[in-house]
Design brief:
Blueprint (H helix, E strand, L loop, with lengths): L6 E6 L5 E6 L5 E4 L7 H13 L16
Antiparallel strand pairs: 1-2, 2-3
């Protein structure tokens, strides 16, 4: 079975900590974990939090509102 895209990829880094990347439908990385996790379950929880935030508002500084 080949890996589907878009998808999250969980892996161990060179410090032996768990990290994730999110890759778009074209296979390009568009997001990465900002920290390493000691436990894989904590890494998965970070992904779950990100998935659950799809209704969060997006804010733009007022000075940037009219910039295309």
């Amino acid at each position: 079975m080949s890996r589907p895209f878009p998808s999250y990829w969980i892996y161990r880094d060179n410090r032996n900590e768990w990290r994730w990347t999110y890759e778009a439908s074209n296979g390009r990385t568009i997001a990465v974990s900002s920290e390493g996790y000691v436990h894989k379950a904590d890494c998965q929880r970070g992904i779950d939090l990100l998935k659950a935030s799809n209704g969060s508002p997006v804010w733009t500084p007022t000075k940037d509102l009219n910039i295309a």
